[in-house]
C-alpha cells in the first residue's frame, strides 16, 4: 500500500467541492458520509452490507473501544480493521466528545480528562497522548486530535478558554501522533476547530491549527443544540479560514438538510448516528422526509417505503411488512431499516457529488427541498 | 408451477432414507431441517441469507401470525411468501401447540380451543376449520392438521382421550382443507400422530390417520420433557406404522444428536428454534459441541469459532470479536451467530443425506459422536 494521504478536488460549484480523498486503505469520494461504528460494528449491519450502501469509510469511537474491548486487546488481535472485518478506511474520534458528555463522571484539567466508565465505573484517564496512542493501537486511518467540545451555550470568555485548551491539546496531539510513527504508517491526523459561535474565536482556532499543520481540519462543537441557522452561520465564518487543499470534516452532522447546507458551505466529510439509530427506532429517512413505522397507517400498505430507492427493504418488502416487524420487535426490522437509511444517506451524498461535478448544485438543492416539502405519499 | 406434491426416496441406509420432496414452490432435500420463522421472519436473518445456509423450506407459526399481523391481513398483502420475501416452500403449524402452551389462558372442548392473546389479552377461537382457513390464507405449502399436543407425563387414559380428540380433529382438518381448495392449490396437509409414550396408542393414531389419508405424517407430542431415550423408543414404535411413500416429520426436534438419531429411525423433516434462539443467546453449535460466547476465555482468542465451517462468522471473524459483540449486546452478534448455527444445522443435514446416499450412515454417526466427544478446542 502506498503511504499517501491527499485530497484531489476535481470540481467546484460555489463554495462546494467534490473530489477524492486518497488514503493507503482506499479512496473516499467527497463529500462523504461516514456511518458510525461505535463499538466495532455499524449497529445491525454486516460490514459488506455497509459497503454495499456506498460507504467508503466508517467511524469508530475511541471512548467506547478503549473501554470495551480495549485498545491493547484490539491491537493484539490485529487492529480494528481486521477485528471488525472492514478493510477500507476508518476514522476514529479522539474520545473527547464522549468523555465530556459524561457530565458527573469526569473532571478536566490541563493534562486531560479523568473519568469513570459508564459500563463498570472503573477509573480512566484520557490525555492527548493517550488518545493518540489508542487511535494508533486501533490502526485508525484518520486520527482526530484530542479536544474539548465546548458546550452550548457558552459565554465568549468560556468558549475562548475552552478553545485555547483544545489548541494546546492539538499541538500535543500532533507531537504524540508523530512520535508514535503515525505519519510513516500512512495515517492522517486532523485538527479540530473550536470557538463556539464566535467568529473571532473560530478564526483564531483555525489559524492556530494551521500553524501546527494537519492533514485535515474538522469543525467541532456544532450540532450541540445551537440550531441549523446558527450552525450554518458558524460554517460561513469558519470554512474560509481552512486550507483549500485539505479535507474539511463537520463532526456529528447530521440531518439530511444539515448535510446539504454544509456541503454548500464547503464541507467534505460528515458522520452521524441518525441513520443507524433511527433505523433501530422505526424511523426512515426518505426523499420525501421522514417516515415513522410505529404509525398504524402502514399496517395494510402494500407499497414500498420509497419506490425509487435501490435498497433491499424498498425493493423486496412492503410498508406493511416493516410496520409488522417494528410492532413485533423483530431484529430484521432494525436490519432492513438501518440498511435503508444508510442507503438513503449514501445516495444523497452521491447526488451531491454528481451535482457539484456537473455544476448543478443549486438545482439539486432546490429539488431536494421541494420533494421533502411534498411529504410522504398519502395512504392508499 | 406444477401442482404436484410427492416424495422421491432416492436411497436408504437401514431405516434412514434420503430423497427429494417435490412441491409446487420448489424441492426439499430430505432429511430436511426447517428454520423457524415464527412471526414472518427467521429472527435476525434476511431470507436470502437463510437460503444461503442451505434451507429449502422454513416454518411459520399460525398462532403468532393469526394474532399479529393477522391471517386476513397477510392474505390481502399477497400471502406469507410475498409478505416476508421467501419464495420457497413454507410449512405452517396448526397453532395447537402454542395454544396448549398458554396454560391459564385457554380452554379446550370438542369444538376446539378458546384462548386469550399473550400480546393484548383479546379473545380468540381456534378450531380445526379455523386453523385450516388461517393456513390457507397464509398460503402455506404444507399445512398441519389441528391437534392437541398431549402433555408429558400423561396417564394412558389421558393420552388416549387426547389422541382420539386429535384424530377427530384430524378428520375435520382434512375435510376443511379440501373444502377450502387446498389440494387444488397444490398445498399439502399433514396429519400428526399422537399417543404419548404408549406404543398401542401411537399405532392406533397412525392407523386412524392413514384411514383419513394425508400427504405427509408428523410425529407430535415429543421433545416435551420425556428425554432422548424415550423419544427414540417412541420413534422405534411409531415410524414403522407410517406409509413408506410419504414424508415423515418429527415436530419441534431438536438438538443435533436428537436429529441424527431420528434420521436413523426414518424421519425426513425437522424444525426447531434451537439454532436461532441460541444464536441470540450467545450459544454456538459446532461439530465439537456447543460453545458459549459469554465465557471470558474467548475474549482474546484470535481463532475462528470453527475453522472447518463455511459461514460468514467462521470465515471472517475471530472468537474474540464474537465475544465482544455478545458483551456489548450488539445486534450483529445475534445475526452472525444465528447464521452460523443455521449453517451448522444445514451442513449436518447435508452430511446425513450424503451418508445415506452412499450407504455410510453408521460411519457418519460414529464420527459425529466422536468429534463431539472431543469437545471444543482448548484456549490458545
**What is the count of structural domains of chain A?**
2
Q: Please count the helical segments of chain A.
A: 15
Principal-axes shape call of chain A: globular
Q: What integer is the average pLDDT of chain A?
A: 96
Assembly context of the chains: homodimer
Number of β-strand runs of chain A: 16
Uncertain stretches of 5 or more adjacent residues of chain A: none
Q: Helices and strands of chain A: which structural class? A: alpha/beta
The third-level CATH topology of the largest domain in chain A is TIM Barrel
Helix content of chain A: 40-55%
Most extensive chain interface and residues per partner: A-B, 36 and 36 residues
What's the CATH H-level superfamily name of the largest domain in chain A? Answer: Queuine tRNA-ribosyltransferase-like
Strand content of chain A: 15-25%
Please supply descriptive tags for the structure shown above.
8-stranded parallel sheet, 2 domains, homodimer, 380 residues, 3-stranded antiparallel sheet, alpha/beta, TIM Barrel
Describe the structure.
- The structure is a homodimer of 380-residue chains.
- Chain A is α/β, with parallel strands linked by helices and 380 residues long.
- Helix content of chain A is 42%, strand content 18%.
- The first copy, chain A, is built from 15 helices and 16 strands.
- Chain A has helices at 47-53, 62-67, 71-76, 80-84, 96-101, 128-138, 156-179, 199-212, 228-238, 256-264, 274-279, 312-316, 319-327, 331-357, 361-374; strands at residues 6-13, 16-23, 26-30, 32-35, 58-60, 90-92, 106-108, 113-116, 123-126, 142-144, 188-193, 216-219, 248-250, 269-272, 283-286, 289-292.
- An eight-stranded parallel β-sheet of chain A has the order 4-14-13-12-11-10-6-5. Chain A has a three-stranded antiparallel β-sheet with strand order 1-2-3. The first copy, chain A, has a three-stranded antiparallel β-sheet with strand order 7-8-9.
- In chain A, strand 1 (6-13) and strand 2 (16-23) form a beta hairpin.
- Chain A starts with 5 loop residues before the first strand and ends in a 6-residue tail after the last helix.
- The model of chain A has no long low-confidence stretch (mean pLDDT 96).
- Chains A and B meet through helix 13 and helix 14 of A and helix 13 and helix 14 of B.
